[in-house]
Specification:
single chain, 4-stranded mixed β-sheet, 8 strands
C-alpha cells in the first residue's frame, strides 16, 4: 500500500522558510483550522504563547498531489550537506541550451526570494541533462533540474 508522505525541514524561522518554499514550488501556506480566519487567531485560541507562534509552519500543493512540507523550529543551525534534497523540476521536456536557459531564469527568480546559487552542472549527454545546485535561505541544498 502506497503511503502519503510529508517532508520535514528543521528551521530557525519556519514562517520565512515556508514562505520561500511556497514561492519556489507554487505551493500555498496551509489554511488554519476550521473556524479560524488566520493562524494567529487559531494559535491565540489554542493558548500558544506569542514567543512560540513561529515554532512550525506548513505548505501544501494547491492541487493536492504533492507532499506537504512541514517546517519545525530547532535551536541549532544547519551544519553539514543534506543527505536528501529536493529536485525542483524547472525545465521539463527541455534539453541543451533551452533547458539551461530555463534553469537560469528560475535560479534568478529564486535568488530574488532569498535562495543562493551554489554551482552549475553543464549538460553531459547522454545521461547528464545539466542542473543548477541552489540553497534555500537557511542553507538547505536543492537542485533546479
Amino acid at each position: 500500500m502506497a503511503r502519503d508522505i510529508q517532508i520535514t525541514f528543521d528551521s530557525a524561522d519556519p514562517a520565512a522558510t515556508a514562505a520561500f518554499w511556497a514561492e519556489a514550488l507554487g505551493y500555498r501556506l496551509q489554511d488554519p483550522p476550521t473556524g479560524f480566519e488566520t493562524w494567529e487567531q487559531a494559535l491565540e485560541a489554542m493558548g500558544v504563547p506569542p514567543e512560540n507562534r513561529n515554532d512550525a509552519s506548513a505548505v501544501i500543493d494547491p492541487e493536492g498531489s504533492g507532499p506537504r512540507l512541514f517546517f519545525q523550529k530547532v535551536p541549532e543551525g544547519k551544519q553539514v550537506k543534506n543527505r536528501v534534497h529536493l529536485d525542483v523540476r524547472a525545465a521539463p521536456g527541455l534539453t541543451g541550451a533551452a533547458r539551461m536557459a530555463a534553469l537560469e531564469d528560475e535560479a534568478a527568480r529564486l535568488i530574488s526570494h532569498g535562495a543562493t546559487r551554489l554551482r552549475r552542472h553543464e549538460p553531459a549527454p547522454p545521461l547528464g541533462a545539466g542542473h543548477i545546485v541552489m540553497a534555500d535561505p537557511e542553507g538547505n541544498e536543492f537542485c533546479l533540474d
